[in-house]
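Working notes for the structural subgroup meeting. M.R. asked for a predicted model of this chain before we commit to crystallization trials. I am recording the input and output together here so anyone reviewing the notebook later can reproduce the run.

Input as submitted:
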Amino acid sequence: MNTNDLKNLINPVCETAVQDGKVIIKYYELKKTVLFKEDKSPLTKADLESNQLIINSLLKIDKNIPILTEESFVDWSIRKNWNTYWLVDPLDGTKEFIKENDEFSVNIALIENNHPVLGVIYSPTLETIYFSYKKGGSYKLNIKKFEKIENYFDNSIKINTSLKTKDDPLIVICSKSHPNDEFNKWITKNIKNFKLIKKGSSLKFCDIAEGTADLYPRLKPTSEWDIAAGHIILIESGGKIESLNQKEILYNTKESVINPYFIASCKFEL
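Returned structure, recorded in token form:
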């Protein structure tokens, strides 16, 4: 897709994320009913209903673009032939949702030729949406004061990562629900001057994209739908994401949807 085609998708995709957020908040305020997946990880009714809402909405936008979501998995034998597809996590941060700490999000990304080219992340509790498209920049909009939004670009602000040198103190962000010894060893070895903050879901990418955090080392498994929207939002804001061995993060190149460990970061001036 060209830049104008991607830009024209922003409004309907943002609206889909906001409508999904209303479903999530409905269950959040009802204190939800928790179910469990086969691997014993938590699954809520909010996951299931929001998943269906997003699928229905994306099919209305373009019925010819296939959809892969965390709750509607597609076998590798089918998706290996996809060049363009939607990659969705209808409720990212289910553990944060269950803990009622507000740090969960809606993630919708468009993947083209193994790269994210459009991304939307919406925080239902903050009523704040982040969106981005290839060669178009990254944006943030708080929707609280608007009864209806005709154009998500109106009143949004363009966001950019911070600019740091190798000697500046860094704000390092890490997962609130997934601490691990490997992260602690890596950060102690590689970063001497830092402040550590913890946050749930893909909102960590948004913090780096808007310059309120600088570095997000992820040394535990994530799935492709966890990071794709944050990936393009970070890149278009001037940031960077790569694997620990400095390889590019790609999507739908293998049967497993598990990402390599990675480092997401702001701009660095060496």
